[in-house]
């Protein structure tokens, strides 16, 4: 991390993670620190579990944990079932990363001619919005900035409002309400692909249909929106997994929605709680 105090080692992938704590924004470059923070975004872990997951000596992990606690990125408490052990909790929020992964992502061939035409339809607000989203994401990619966590949090905030507009106690009825809203605003079309697990297929996805091919899913905003809508529907935190995406080379996006108490509670906490 920028200004790391001790236990610093070069990172193999060159990615720098960005976290926001109560008093500062921190850049994390250390491979071990990144591993610790990624684990704690899943759930709370004991010190011994972190050591096992990291595959490093206890003394090495202890130095990194001390640094993260001093930086205000994680907290430590005594295990209520064993006062000889410590439980670690993340107390910062991921806000993105600096990465070279998508900087040179190739664009789709059919978009090479766009320079000679307007990238949106004059007077068509949805097409202008889609162009703006694409422009923002592609510029960020070109600069080596991944803003997925911010997009997901923004999607969650919007989803909490949309959840009440599209709600229907019947799952298929709610998905139809969602699709009607999406189509009305030029966001795409949503189909309920299966109910066990819940699977949604999105055609014409506003977030990623016009993005360069990256080889992986890029719909962080949609994941935030869907997380809020289905958390409200199930009255329980959910886990959203994007398994197909335009940006991965598919001709649609597909999301799997599952109740997931462990992962869901961490996501729910990170989205809604104040940084402490």
UniProtKB/TrEMBL annotation:
<dbReference type="Pfam" id="PF02830">
    <property type="entry name" value="V4R"/>
</dbReference>
<feature type="domain" description="HTH arsR-type">
    <location>
        <begin position="24"/>
        <end position="100"/>
    </location>
</feature>
<dbReference type="InterPro" id="IPR024096">
    <property type="entry name" value="NO_sig/Golgi_transp_ligand-bd"/>
</dbReference>
<dbReference type="InterPro" id="IPR004096">
    <property type="entry name" value="V4R"/>
</dbReference>
<dbReference type="InterPro" id="IPR036390">
    <property type="entry name" value="WH_DNA-bd_sf"/>
</dbReference>
<dbReference type="InterPro" id="IPR011991">
    <property type="entry name" value="ArsR-like_HTH"/>
</dbReference>
<dbReference type="InterPro" id="IPR036388">
    <property type="entry name" value="WH-like_DNA-bd_sf"/>
</dbReference>
<dbReference type="InterPro" id="IPR001845">
    <property type="entry name" value="HTH_ArsR_DNA-bd_dom"/>
</dbReference>
<dbReference type="Pfam" id="PF01022">
    <property type="entry name" value="HTH_5"/>
</dbReference>
<protein>
    <submittedName>
        <fullName>4-vinyl reductase</fullName>
    </submittedName>
</protein>
<dbReference type="GO" id="GO:0003700">
    <property type="term" value="F:DNA-binding transcription factor activity"/>
</dbReference>
<feature type="domain" description="4-vinyl reductase 4VR">
    <location>
        <begin position="197"/>
        <end position="259"/>
    </location>
</feature>
């Amino acid at each position: 991390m920028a200004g790391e105090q001790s236990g610093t080692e070069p990172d193999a992938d060159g990615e720098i993670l960005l976290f926001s704590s109560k008093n500062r924004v921190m850049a994390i470059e250390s491979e071990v620190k990144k591993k610790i923070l990624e684990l704690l975004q899943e759930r709370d872990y004991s010190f011994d579990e972190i050591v096992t997951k990291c595959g490093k000596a206890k003394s090495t992990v202890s130095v990194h944990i001390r640094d993260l606690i001093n930086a205000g990125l994680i907290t430590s408490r005594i295990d209520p079932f064993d006062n000889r052990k410590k439980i670690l909790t993340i107390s910062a929020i991921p806000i993105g990363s600096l990465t070279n992964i998508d900087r040179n992502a190739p664009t789709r061939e059919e978009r090479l001619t766009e320079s000679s035409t307007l990238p949106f339809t004059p007077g068509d607000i949805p097409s202008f919005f889609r162009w703006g989203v694409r422009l923002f994401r592609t510029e960020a990619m070109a600069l080596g900035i991944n803003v997925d966590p911010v997009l997901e949090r923004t999607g969650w905030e919007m989803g909490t409002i949309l959840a009440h507009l599209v709600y229907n106690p019947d799952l298929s009825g709610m998905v139809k309400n969602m699709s009607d809203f999406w189509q009305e605003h030029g966001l795409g079309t949503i189909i309920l692909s299966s109910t066990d697990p819940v699977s949604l297929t999105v055609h014409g996805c506003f977030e990623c249909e016009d993005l360069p091919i990256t080889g992986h899913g890029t719909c962080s905003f949609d994941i935030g929106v869907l997380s809020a809508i289905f958390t409200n529907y199930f009255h329980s935190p959910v886990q959203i997994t994007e398994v197909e995406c335009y940006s991965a080379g598919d001709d649609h996006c597909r999301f799997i929605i599952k109740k997931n108490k462990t992962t869901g509670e961490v996501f729910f906490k990170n989205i809604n709680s104040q940084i402490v």
